[in-house]
């Protein structure tokens, strides 16, 4: 067993680190088959400000498409994205904008979409931090993933983002295989190529509903069939998932990331995208006695400092 002093090196000593180590030790009593951890992605495993990484990916594709056919940019959704008009984007709503942007990839085969996502991740940079997106993962959370994996936890990513986009990068960034990603699903059409061989084409239709709020818990059950002992999130869209983890009859932990470090990252209170919350998630966490991670206080470093292997997403 690794000594306590060497566990989670980017987590500063204090109550939050103590709670994590206390859970890890208590989890030794859980049968290995029932050691399950569920993590939100945006704002929990990597930076989500000033815009979601997947939205940057869609915007990148839109700019290429508009350069080839300027008429594409005439729709309200596309015009707002191309202009960076935050007020218009807020009025239209992220869900409607995402659906419109999803049309850019309608007809793509799964492998083709994965290649496009990985190409974007290999060349694009965060718009304010100026680093490759692979450098915007949270180093302390990667350490937590590694420690959970060492203790034989099954780790899943349960995200409001598009399933296929996150699957394209999850193994390279987090060591989480594609089949362990639960996100917002897009429908596929079964089609035959000219030679009669079968394939799948992406559509612009969401399968079910956006994976936020109660949908996360329902999809954990229907797609994974596992009850998490640990859940980590950062917004009101993760509330029910964290509550569900704490409802486990075995040792459990609900971990909320509080973005309170405007020097190294951003300062804001995360909110759900597809519904209105009645209570700030930080207030919910205090009332329900969750473990709240202060980026400013609890993390000695936020982002990885080592060079990123350019083949990490291959």
Would you kindly provide a written description of the structure presented here, covering whatever features stand out?
The chain is of the alpha/beta class and about 325 residues long. The chain has one domain: HAD superfamily/HAD-like (Rossmann fold), CATH 3.40.50.1000. The protein has helices at about 15-25, 55-70, 75-85, 85-90, 95-100, 110-125, 140-150, 165-175, 215-225, 240-245, 280-285, 295-300, and strands at about 35-40, 155-160, 180-190, 200-205, 230-235, 255-260, 265-270, 290-295. Strands 1, 2, 3, 4, 5, 6, 7 and 8 form an 8-stranded mixed β-sheet that branches. It is about 40% helix and about 15% strand. The relative contact order is 0.17. It has 12 helices and 8 strands. The protein is globular and about 55 Å long. Helix 3 runs antiparallel to helix 4 and helix 6 (about 110-125) packs across helix 8 (about 165-175). The model has no long low-confidence stretch (mean pLDDT about 95). Helix 8 (about 165-175) links the parallel strand 2 and strand 3 (about 180-190).
For the terminal residues, how far apart are their CA atoms? 32 Å
CATH architecture: 3-Layer(aba) Sandwich
At the first level of CATH, what is the class?
Alpha Beta
Instruction: Categorize the overall geometry.
Output: globular
**How much helicity do the residues have?**
25-40%
What is the count of DSSP helices, taking H or I runs of 4+ residues? 12
Order of helices and strands: HEHHHHHHEHEEHEHEEHEH
- Provide the domain count: 1
Q: Report the portion of residues in β strands.
A: 15-25%
Total number of strands: 8
Mean of residue pLDDT values: 94
Using only C-alpha atoms, the radius of gyration works out to: 20 Å
Category from helices, strands and their pairing: alpha/beta
Per the CATH scheme, the topology name is Rossmann fold
Largest sheet report: 8 strands, mixed
Query: CATH superfamily assignment?
Result: HAD superfamily/HAD-like
